[in-house]
């Protein structure tokens, strides 16, 4: 594919080999956020003649401090499309195709990926990263994976057979909290914030039984006489409200703020107090009265700083609770039957509601209260992002892409941008060698294999489907029994629904049985061995028989309440990504992979599942 | 020193700068808003620095350049529309620079630095100079230094680049993260959890002028010992600066072959002059030094932009005093020279 136009214009800037390699390339950029904008700029200036860019997101004001291809008048428009137009003004001689879409789609299959010489990831979430990783492995296209968080960042090459893939090392599970900590015994602000977001969903959002906000009577710590005494006293006098769904109860009271407040911050707290075992070693909570709230008679404190940085009094929180409740209910009522609100940190009333509820609950449990600004960071999982770190990472990524095109792929080791220089004065720290693939990786090994530990007598096929999706990051799994060829799970809608509620035992699977699980979209097949474990309440992925992976533990399983299949983690992330920050690699022998600290971070660029 | 002002940020500013205020704090953002920045040389590197500094939300940026936009600038200068070749680089960059952040006051100056008095430079809180010759850099650095104003300079040749900083006598605060084991409630599965908290400490850094950093005596034993563990980037910079002094231009892509030969000859001379180890400055470092590669400009411009933010906000330790990007190893490092 030799284009007529030669965007790599002035002869001599590159050597001939590089000039030709660039002129004959087509590249894909996944994500048009902070890093994506910078990558796109570098590519068009360098003269890459054919670029595809994809992002499903639209432009927000808070992007403008770094996503420099966007200006105020572009707020609300498609990122990929505005990025294309801005980048073309730097070099009209290149071809840019922009897609306002999720990369996770049958429209972008293996043959789509095969047309690119290099793929550059500028994503902010693991689901999309896993997916692009698999697509590039299947298409055998080099992938440059990037990420930033605050001052730090990284650039990493993934090439099938040459380097480790994005999924060669197990990622640390998302931080979750035991259900009883959230519902009964919060001790930190984050516990109250998670509770407040659950409450939002219970009242206005999608009801999730894992997000119950009422006192948890099955708390093992409260076992014994406490539960009984609780049931006989407060439980019954307050109409045993915890037996009814919070939403139904709220609807009956017509979302009356005072009644809601009295139940959530008065009755429920008194109920918790009756579970006396909980308070033997803890400071007990103090129920609140709507008409007698702290701060009612005092004027707001003098405050300097952003308005959002002022901490509200409990009286003010109650006022905000009241107004936000009313607005949210109005919004909910205006929607069609069955529709619901989705919590968004950038929606004023949704954010107000969570701030107010988290602080009221924190006050009750003697936990420090926080400003709306701080709560927004925690509730919205906001990772700070700046132009400079994105510029550096994107610059390094495109230099790496040039090296790959030139045939120097073996020199493309991972590079880490450190927030501060290391003991050798290094700010960008390259690894000395490429990290080879993990031969036992259940994604990129020649014959991928993984074990799923579960209780085959209890786990249903529906649960197993969730294990494939949530545990093995598949999009549309099909499963057949090895040796028998029987299809037990199909990605075709309805085809295997009759199996949904059958246990694995019931369909003839036993300890040691194997399934061949295939994802058509990802062009990925893995052999799944089943391991019987009587104690397993749901399922656990065991990628390597010698070294079991630290599996995400359930929120509920630990406290003896109703077992739930699948890691019933509180999904309190808008998005996630991760960043590896190298610690101090210099004293490590070159052959040993450097020590890493994997941290949970979400950076900028959002391309998510639609 | 940037004066602090007590005027609160507007709602629009708070919204636009939200993601960075969450990193460096409100106080830093207020200091940024008071800072007047001069950027000299609006080729690829100057455009990158301008973009980063303007996005950060400073008070004003002056773009100074007396040169015309060239064909080769199209590889990295994204602030200038490509059809403006032949026009003044600072002036043609104004429209796009302003669009990056309408809250920043942006002006262009088309005189040569040689025709501007010292008092012009000291009007600014910080000066970032690119594309100048050594004597021009030293003159502006000394003018800034005499008025206690901060000075940064840097350049990119092909894929290679450097930065120098003279923040004179710089006071800053640094956040240090500490860990404390904490006992949790009896319901916690982990017996103890580590609580992280940060404390802020005040620090001070003393800088030297550019001429000190560029006139290092490599015959001194302490400098010889640096060669053993060292990276040759400092010498690559010296060779490229000498080239500029001698030929009154940077290596020219159109004369790639001839200029590479000159650079390698200059390298051999320097190696002899300073008795450097043979093979210390590999050929590869002098072969990709033509024009400005967008990726390299982004990298060096990112580092310099961040140093402007640190210097102005007086937060976090700034680099003292040279940064180099070695594209062959893809390493970026800071070393102190001339002290």
UniProtKB/TrEMBL annotation, chain A:
Pfam families: ThiF, UAE_UbL, UBA_E1_SCCH. Belongs to the ubiquitin-activating E1 family. Heterodimer. ATP binds at residues 31-36, 55, 63-66, 79, 102-103, 124-129. Keywords: ATP-binding, Metal-binding, Nucleotide-binding, Nucleus, Transferase, Ubl conjugation pathway, Zinc. One of its GO terms (molecular function) is ATP binding. The keyword Nucleotide-binding applies. Residues 452-536 form the Ubiquitin/SUMO-activating enzyme ubiquitin-like domain. Residues 577-588 have a biased composition (Acidic residues). This is SUMO-activating enzyme subunit. It comes from Chrysodeixis includens (Soybean looper). One of its GO terms (cellular component) is cytoplasm. The active site is at 180 (glycyl thioester intermediate). Pathway: Protein modification; protein sumoylation. Residues 221-239 have a biased composition (Low complexity). InterPro entries: ThiF/MoeB/HesA, ThiF_NAD_FAD-bd, UAE_UbL_dom, Ub-E1_IAD_1, Ub_act_enz_dom_a_sf, Uba2, UBA_E1_SCCH, Ubiquitin-activating_enz. Residues 13-441 form the THIF-type NAD/FAD binding fold domain. It is found in: Nucleus. Residues 206-245, 539-610 are annotated as: Disordered. One of its GO terms (biological process) is protein sumoylation. The keyword ATP-binding applies. Residues 344-376 form the Ubiquitin-activating enzyme SCCH domain. Zn(2+) binds at residues 165, 168, 441, 444.
UniProtKB/TrEMBL annotation, chain B:
SUPFAM superfamilies: Activating enzymes of the ubiquitin-like proteins (SSF69572). It is found in: Nucleus. Residues 17-327 form the THIF-type NAD/FAD binding fold domain. GO terms for cellular component: cytoplasm; SUMO activating enzyme complex. One of its GO terms (molecular function) is SUMO activating enzyme activity. Keywords: Nucleus, Ubl conjugation pathway. Pathway: Protein modification; protein sumoylation. The keyword Chloroplast does not apply. GO terms for biological process: protein sumoylation. It holds the Pfam family ThiF. The keyword Iron does not apply. Belongs to the ubiquitin-activating E1 family. PANTHER family: SUMO-ACTIVATING ENZYME SUBUNIT 1 (PTHR10953:SF162), UBIQUITIN-ACTIVATING ENZYME E1 (PTHR10953). Heterodimer of SAE1 and UBA2/SAE2. The heterodimer corresponds to the two domains that are encoded on a single polypeptide chain in ubiquitin-activating enzyme E1. Interacts with UBE2I. This is SUMO-activating enzyme subunit 1. It comes from Chrysodeixis includens.
């Amino acid at each position: 594919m030799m284009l007529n136009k030669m965007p790599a214009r002035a002869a001599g800037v590159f050597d001939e080999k590089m000039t030709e390699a660039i002129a004959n390339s087509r590249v894909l950029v996944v994500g048009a956020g902070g890093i994506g904008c910078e990558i796109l700029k570098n590519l068009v200036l360098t003269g890459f003649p054919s670029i595809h860019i994809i992002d499903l997101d639209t432009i927000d004001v808070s992007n403008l401090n770094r996503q420099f291809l966007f200006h105020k008048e572009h707020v609300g428009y498609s990122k990929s499309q505005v990025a294309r137009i801005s980048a073309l003004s730097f070099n009209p001689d290149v071809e840019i195709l922009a897609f306002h879409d999720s990369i996770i789609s049958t429209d972008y299959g293996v043959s789509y990926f095969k047309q690119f010489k290099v793929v550059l990831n500028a994503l902010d979430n693991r689901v999309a990263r896993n997916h692009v990783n698999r697509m590039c492995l299947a298409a055998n296209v080099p992938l440059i994976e990037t990420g930033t968080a605050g001052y730090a960042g990284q650039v990493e090459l993934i090439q099938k057979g040459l380097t480790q893939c994005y999924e060669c090392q197990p990622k640390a599970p998302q931080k979750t909290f035991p259900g009883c900590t959230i519902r009964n015994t919060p001790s930190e602000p984050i516990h109250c914030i998670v509770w407040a977001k659950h409450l939002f969903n219970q009242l206005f959002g999608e009801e999730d039984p894992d997000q119950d906000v009422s006192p948890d009577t099955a708390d093992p710590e409260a076992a014994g006489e406490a539960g009984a005494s609780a049931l006989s006293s407060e439980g019954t006098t307050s109409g045993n409200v915890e037996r009814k769904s919070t939403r139904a109860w709220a609807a009956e009271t017509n979302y009356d703020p005072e009644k809601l407040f009295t139940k959530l911050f008065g009755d429920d707290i008194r109920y918790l107090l009756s579970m006396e075992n909980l308070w033997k070693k803890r400071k007990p909570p103090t129920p609140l009265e709507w008409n007698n709230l702290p701060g009612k008679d005092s004027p707001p404190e003098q405050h300097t700083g952003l308005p959002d940085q002022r901490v509200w009094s409990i009286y003010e929180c109650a006022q905000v609770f009241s107004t936000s409740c009313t607005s949210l209910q109005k919004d909910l009522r205006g929607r069609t039957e069955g529709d619901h609100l989705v919590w968004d940190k950038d929606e004023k009333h949704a954010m107000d509601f969570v701030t107010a509820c988290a602080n009221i609950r924190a006050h009750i449990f003697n936990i420090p209260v926080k400003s709306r600004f701080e709560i927004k960071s925690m509730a919205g999982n906001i990772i700070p992002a700046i132009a400079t770190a994105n510029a550096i990472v994107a610059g390094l990524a495109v230099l790496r892409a040039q090296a790959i095109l030139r045939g120097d792929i073996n020199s493309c080791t991972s590079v880490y941008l450190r927030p501060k220089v290391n003991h050798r004065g290094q700010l960008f720290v390259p690894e000395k060698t490429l990290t080879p693939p993990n031969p036992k990786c259940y994604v990129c090994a020649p014959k991928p294999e993984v074990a799923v530990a579960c209780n085959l007598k209890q786990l249903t096929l529906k649960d197993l489907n969730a294990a494939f999706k949530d545990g093995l990051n598949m999009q549309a799994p099909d499963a057949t029994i090895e040796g028998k060829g029987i299809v037990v799970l199909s990605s075709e809608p309805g085809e295997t629904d009759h199996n949904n509620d059958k246990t694995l035992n019931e369909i003839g699977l036993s300890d040691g049985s194997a399934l061949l699980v295939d994802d058509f979209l990802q062009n990925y097949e893995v052999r799944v061995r089943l391991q019987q474990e009587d104690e397993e309440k749901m399922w656990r992925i065991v990628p390597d028989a010698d070294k079991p992976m630290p599996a995400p533990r359930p929120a509920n399983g630990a406290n003896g309440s109703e077992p739930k299949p699948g890691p019933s983690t509180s999904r309190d992330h808008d998005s996630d990504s991760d960043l590896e920050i190298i610690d101090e690699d210099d004293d490590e022998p070159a052959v040993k992979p450097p020590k890493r600290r994997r941290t949970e971070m979400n950076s900028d660029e959002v391309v998510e599942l639609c | 020193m940037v004066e602090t002002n007590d005027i609160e940020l507007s709602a629009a500013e708070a919204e636009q700068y939200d993601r960075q205020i969450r990193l460096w704090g409100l106080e830093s953002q207020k200091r940024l808003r008071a800072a007047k920045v001069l950027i000299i040389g609006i080729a690829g590197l100057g455009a990158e620095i301008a973009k980063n500094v303007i996005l950060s939300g400073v008070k004003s940026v002056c773009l100074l350049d007396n040169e015309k936009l060239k064909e080769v600038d199209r590889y990295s200068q994204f602030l200038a529309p490509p059809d403006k070749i032949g026009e003044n680089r600072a002036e043609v960059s104004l429209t796009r620079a302003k669009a990056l952040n309408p809250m920043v006051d942006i002006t262009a100056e088309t005189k040569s630095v040689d025709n501007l008095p010292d008092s012009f430079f000291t009007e600014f809180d910080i000066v970032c100079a690119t594309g100048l010759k050594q004597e021009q850099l030293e003159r502006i650095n000394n003018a800034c230094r005499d008025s206690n104003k901060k000075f940064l300079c840097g350049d990119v040749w092909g894929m290679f680049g450097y930065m120098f900083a003279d923040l004179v006598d710089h006071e800053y605060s640094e956040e240090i993260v500490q860990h404390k084991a904490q006992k949790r409630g009896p319901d916690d599965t982990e017996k103890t959890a580590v609580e992280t908290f940060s404390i802020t400490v005040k620090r001070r850094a003393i800088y030297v002028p550019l001429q000190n950093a560029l006139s290092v005596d490599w015959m001194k034993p302490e400098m010889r010992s640096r060669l053993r563990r060292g990276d040759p980037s400092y010498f690559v910079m010296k060779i490229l600066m000498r080239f500029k002094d001698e030929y009154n231009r940077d290596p020219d892509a159109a004369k790639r072959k001839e200029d590479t030969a000159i650079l390698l000859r200059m390298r051999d001379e320097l190696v002899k002059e300073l008795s450097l180890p043979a093979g210390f400055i590999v050929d590869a470092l002098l072969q990709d030094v033509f024009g400005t590669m967008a990726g390299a400009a982004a990298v060096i411009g990112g580092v310099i932009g961040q140093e402007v933010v640190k210097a102005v906000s007086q937060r976090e330790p700034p680099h003292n005093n040279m940064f180099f990007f070695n594209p062959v190893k893809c390493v970026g490092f800071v070393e102190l020279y001339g002290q």
